[in-house]
Amino acid sequence: MNVAAIFHRSSGNLCYAADQDTVVLRLQTGKDVEQVTLVCADPFIHELTRRKHWYGQHYIMQCLCELPHHILWEYRIKPPFKRLQYYFEVSAGEERYAVMEDGVFPIGDTSPAHRQCFKFAWLNPSDVIAPPAWVKDTVWYQIMPDRFCRDKNAPDDPKFLSWGQKKYFGFNHTYGGTLKGITERLPYLRELGITGLYLTPIFSAGSYHKYNTFDYRTVDPDFGTEDDLRELVQKAHQAGIRIMLDGVFNHCGTNFFAWQDVCQKQKASPYYDWFFINQENFLSERVETADARYYTFSFWAGMPKFNTNHPEVIEYFSEICAYWVREWDIDG
C-alpha cells in the first residue's frame, strides 16, 4: 500500500460542519486502496458505558472522486452530541492499516486506546458556512468588463485598443468594454445557460483591471455610470441572472482616501494602522516593495495592503458591502 499517499487533517475541506447537525469527513489515499472504513463515536462514549477504553462504530466510506494520483473518500455523519473522535481503517488486498492522528499503523500492531485519534471538538453553528440556497445551482460566468463588450453607442475613443490587439498591451491599455455592453449581451449569456455573472472590480481605479481601487462607492467612468449598473442588475434579474461583484478588500490603490491621508500625515493619520507600515520613511518612488517598507499586494507599491483585522477596516468594508446591496440590489 502507498502509505505516503494517505492524508487527513481535522480541518479545512477534509473535516467540516456541513450544517448544524452534520459533519463531513474525508480521507485522501492512493489509488491502490480498495476500501476505507470510518471508525468513530463520541470521545467520551466509554465513560458513558463504563468501559476502560474508547471504542467506535464502523462505517464504510464512499469514493467521492478519483483524482489523477489519489482517491478522495467521504462519509457524512450526524453526531448526537455534536462532537466526534475517529480514525480510519484502509484496505488494499490483504494489507490493512489504521490511519491515526499520530501516524499510519498496521492493524493489529496497535490499539486506538494507545494511539492519538482525530477529534472534531464541537459542532459550532458559527462554523457552518451557509450560502444562499440559490448559489448551489448557479452557473457562473466571470466577466472582466473592459475585455467583454463595448456597447453599440460607446464613443470611438482613441485611447481604446482595437479588439484583439495585443502588441502594445500594458497596465493602462484598455479596450473600452462597458456595463451597457454587458447589458446588451444578456440574451446571449442567457442562451448559454448562465444564471450568475461574477464581475471583476468595477469601481473607480487606475488600471484596466480596477484591482487598485480608489473609491469603493463610485462606478469607474471607463465602464459607465451608476444608472448603467442599476440597469444591468435590473435586466439581469429579469432574465433570471444573479450579479456578484468582486470586492477588493485585501488592498487598495494609492488614491484611496485613507492611504492619501497616511501619505500626508504619516503616523498622525487616524488611518495609519489601517495598513502595514514597517519603516519610518515608507514613501518612495520605487514601484516595488521588496524592501518591505510597507506590505502590498504582491510587491506592487501602488497596492498597499489593508490590515483586515483592524476593527475600523472591518466596519468600513462591512458598510461598503451593505451599501452595494442597498444601492444597486446586487446578489453578492
Describe the overall structure.
The protein has helices at 45-48, 145-148, 179-184, 186-191, 226-238, 257-265, 311-328, and strands spanning 15-17, 23-29, 35-41, 57-60, 62-66, 71-77, 84-92, 95-100, 103-106, 118-120, 140-143, 196-199, 203-205, 213-219, 242-245. It is an alpha+beta fold. It has two domains: 3-127, Immunoglobulin-like, CATH 2.60.40; 133-249 and 308-328, TIM Barrel. The strands form four sheets. Strands 3, 4, 7, 8, 9 and 10 form a six-stranded antiparallel beta sheet that branches. A four-stranded antiparallel beta sheet has the order 1-2-6-5, with no helix packed on it. A three-stranded parallel beta sheet has the order 11-12-15. It is elongated. The two termini are 46 Å apart. The mean pLDDT is 93.
Q: Beta-sheet strand percentage?
A: 15-25%
Separation of the first and last Cα atoms: 46 Å
**DSSP helical segment count:** 7
Whole-number mean pLDDT? 93
In a few lines, what is going on in this structure?
By secondary structure, the protein is α+β, with helices and mostly antiparallel strands. The protein has helices at 45-48, 145-148, 179-184, 186-191, 226-238, 257-265, 311-328, and strands at residues 15-17, 23-29, 35-41, 57-60, 62-66, 71-77, 84-92, 95-100, 103-106, 118-120, 140-143, 196-199, 203-205, 213-219, 242-245.
Secondary-structure map:
Layout: E1 15-17, E2 23-29, E3 35-41, H1 45-48, E4 57-60, E5 62-66, E6 71-77, E7 84-92, E8 95-100, E9 103-106, E10 118-120, E11 140-143, H2 145-148, H3 179-184, H4 186-191, E12 196-199, E13 203-205, E14 213-219, H5 226-238, E15 242-245, H6 257-265, H7 311-328
Parallel strand pairs: 11-12, 12-15
Antiparallel strand pairs: 1-2, 2-6, 3-4, 3-7, 5-6, 7-8, 7-10, 8-9, 13-14
